Amino acid sequence: MAAPKKGRSASAQSRPGRSLALILIAIAALTGGMFASGNTTPRLGIDLAGGTSITLTAKNEPGQPNAINKTNMDTAVDIMNRRVNGLGVSEAEVQTQGSDNIIVNIPKGTNSQQARQQVGTTAKLYFRPVLTTDVSGAAASSSPSPSASSSPSGKAGDKATSSSSSSPTPSASATTQGRAVSDALKADSSPSASASTSASPSASASVDPATAKLQAQYEALDCTDKAVRAKAGSGAKPTEATVACGQDKNSSGQWQKYILGPAEVVGTDIKKAGAVFDTQSGAGWKVTMDFTSGGSKKFASITGKLAQNQPPQNQFAIVLDGQVVSDPSVAQSLSGSAEISGSFTQTEAQDLANMLKYGALPLSFKESSVTTVTAALGGEQLHAGLIAGAIGLALVIIYLVIYYRGLSVIAIASLGVSAILTYVLMALLGPAIGFALNLPAVCGAIVAIGITADSFIVFFERIRDEIREGRTLRPAVERAWPRARRTILVSDFVSFLAAAVLFIVTVGKVQGFAFTLGLTTVLDVVVVFFFTKPLMTILARKKFFAEGHRWSGLDPKRLGAKPPLRRTRRASAPVDTKEA
Prior knowledge:
Helix 2 runs parallel beside helix 13. A hairpin with a 5-residue loop joins strand 8 and strand 9. The chain has 18 helices and 13 strands. The strands form three sheets. The chain has a five-stranded mixed beta barrel. The chain has a four-stranded antiparallel sheet with strand order 2-3-1-13. It is elongated, with a radius of gyration of 37 Å. Helices cover about 50% and strands about 15% of the residues. By secondary structure, it is of the alpha+beta class.
């Protein structure tokens, strides 16, 4: 059994160049990838690059006094995180503060303004049938007359135009409209609803109080006022009819107002959404939506009913956070997917698709404060931290040179390889996973210097122990390595475990420290196994180290080595047969 073991040992000692070549090829490939990607510097966090800090305060919805709770706040944080990450914003921090506040830190960058607009947007989406619509500020009338525009409002509002098939007399207009709304609610947007628009004024007695109240709200609604638009229909449940305003002016430059029926399809019925450019019609950007199986059935049902109605009750309104984004007309039953089209810009289409994709917030929020963070203070702290790190590294190198002499070359080269790998990986991980370098991450990198140096010291001391036992350098290196390897792995495992636990149980900037500490710990193992040990094996063959030069750090006399080990046969003691 001894011969094969010796063969394997000799083979391992004769091929250290392979390990060195492997790690050098890996460094070259990673460095080439860094320059090819154009990201030659790590991304900086908000404390170093500057950015915006937003404080959002949750608001109780009418009829939901206990909506602000830990579950809903955690859900809101998760959705905000996914929205911002979907925009590609690096190191955006979203975390709760107290019981009703959420702090959002958005680093300065290309998409920071978009992220600010999206984090507090509730994005509650409903598909509601249009019961009646008119231009805000116009005199009360029934379903629009031939001269009145009922073209859909908002970005998609220029696609359909329609006119009423009847025009009641002015004296009967209000009651006729109220009756039409009432019938539409009762009949669930059935074809008979539109026919009732020609009802006589005497039918007003059948208009229920809820419809009368809704009609009064509609007549008083002034969508030209921004504050009124924002509060129109607030507090209405999805199962209730409501009033609403268009999100933007229609094609005539006027604000549209609506009475809308109960929601037939909700945002949770959407499976996925995306922004695409309409190349066929050249209409510009639009938002496409695919429904779930249940949502598809609901959408087919409501569009089938609306297709049988007369304008404007053949339209459905896409309502986002209480405002009508689009109100297209329906000519036939639709299912499976839908789209919101109009004069969207690319950014607007992507923002809307992003909010629909990741769902609505369970709570409404208001911006309590918005603070612009400058990088001046962070830059000073970074400068001070780098100086401290440089001083610490210099002291470590001085100690290695004084104590280990020639061996310090191996240690310094290994520290250099570790630093190169750390920098390149940080630069690549920025665009890959959104990693951003902040001050705690810098601290983690500085702490890693000690972890890496500790691994070298363990290995060197094991070699010295073998030399003190009287062995020459080459056998000493191979005998010391298994013992040193075990100690290094256990030490690095404990460090990595601590970093992993810290990353899981903490939030915000502390995760940057934990991530950097874990990354550098893994790199320490890679460097020691693929660089330090092979380099030590190669240098052990050199005369300077093999003969124990006084500046090699391996001088047997300075280490107090014993005489070389020799194999001797010990004479067997005579056996007393009587005692046996």
